[in-house]
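Class prep. Sample record?

___
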Amino acid sequence: MCKSLFLEPGHLARCGDLWYEPGILLIVEEHEQVEVYTARNGKPVICRGSYGYAQLNPRRLPTGLRSGQPVIDTSSAWSAAYA
C-alpha cells in the first residue's frame, strides 16, 4: 500500500534519494519516510520535519503536504522565463 501526496507551493520534499517539488506526485510506501522542507528559489532552506508512513494521515497532514490535486505556483516560473 502507498500514500499519494502533493506539496504546497514554497515547499520541497525528499523521499529516499528523490527530491519532489510542487505539482509532482509524491508516493510514500510503508517502509519509507519523507522529509519536508521550505524552499526558496527552488532550493531547500529549512527542514520542517521528517515523517514516516504511519504519520501521514490524509486528514491531518503536516504543513507543506496535501492530498488531492496539485497546487502549482507558476508565477516564479514565468518571471524566470521572461527575465
